[in-house]
Amino acid sequence: RGEGHAASMRTCVLHGAGRYREAVESADEAIAILSQFGDRWEVGFAARNRAVCLYRLGRLREAREEARRVHDIGVAVGDANAQVTALDVMARVTGGQISAELARAAVEHGGDDIEVCVAALHADALRLRHDGQLDEAISQLERAVRLVSKAQPTSTHLVPVFAWLATLHRE
Questions:
Q1: CA 114 to CA 6: how far, in whole Å?
Q2: What is the DSSP string of 21-44?
Q3: What share of the chain is helix, strand, coil (3-state, %, to 5)?
Q4: 96-119 b/e with 16+ CB inside 10 Å = b?
Q5: Which residue, 104, 78, 102, is CA-closest to 90?
Q6: pLDDT tens column, 47-94
Q7: 167 class by beta-carbon count within 10 Å (0-12 exposed, 13-18 middle, 19+ buried)
Q8: CB neighbours of 79 closer than 8 A, spacing ≥ 6?
Q9: Residues sharing a CB contact under 8 Å with residue 31, sequence separation 6 or more, in sequence order
């Protein structure tokens, strides 16, 4: 089990270093090991990072499938982080074609976890952008940027909101 967790953490490091192919391989290893122990929570974490790396590699169909699987795991184990961060990946992969209901529920859930809050706002912003509501999308990303700026984290899952906000301002 420790080897699976180590492989999952290695995935995070490789992702942060931009070594996405290696990160996917490490995530595959983590998922295989953790699945043997039935640790769906940790499998969800490793699979979420795998989905993000697949997205970064442009393997969108695979990223979408993996994000859906992570979302399902999150629902099954009651993991809001898995559910919402998977929704964020699905929003990126599909250009914002996600359920308004799911996006709104994610934003309303909020909570104290900055990663969940920022992922929810990001997913909703991409949905709003897709729906032609650019001002509302910018507003959601501005909320996300304020949260990240205030907390000053260094997570690779949080800082993309700055680039997305700049993108939406250019549109």
A1: 24
A2: HHHHHHHHHHHHHHHHTT-HHHHH
A3: 80, 0, 20
A4: bebeeebbeebbeeeeeebbbbbb
A5: 102
A6: 999 999 999 999 999 999 999 999 998 998 888 889 999 999 999 999
A7: exposed
A8: 41, 44, 73
A9: 4, 43, 46, 47, 50
Q: How far is CA 121 from CA 46, 48, 63, 88, in A?
A: 22, 17, 20, 9
Residue with token string 């984290």: 153
- Pair 64, 90: CB distance under 8 Å: yes
Q: What does the mean pLDDT of the chain come to?
A: 93
| Kind and range of the H or E run holding 51 | helix 40-56
In angstroms, the CA 105 to CA 112 distance is 15
pTM of the entire structure? Answer: 0.90
Q: What would the two tokens of residue 103 be? A: 């996006």
| Both structure tokens of 139 | 């507003």
| Six-digit token string for 162 | 């700055």
DSSP code of residue 96? S
Only one residue has tokens 């490490």, namely 26
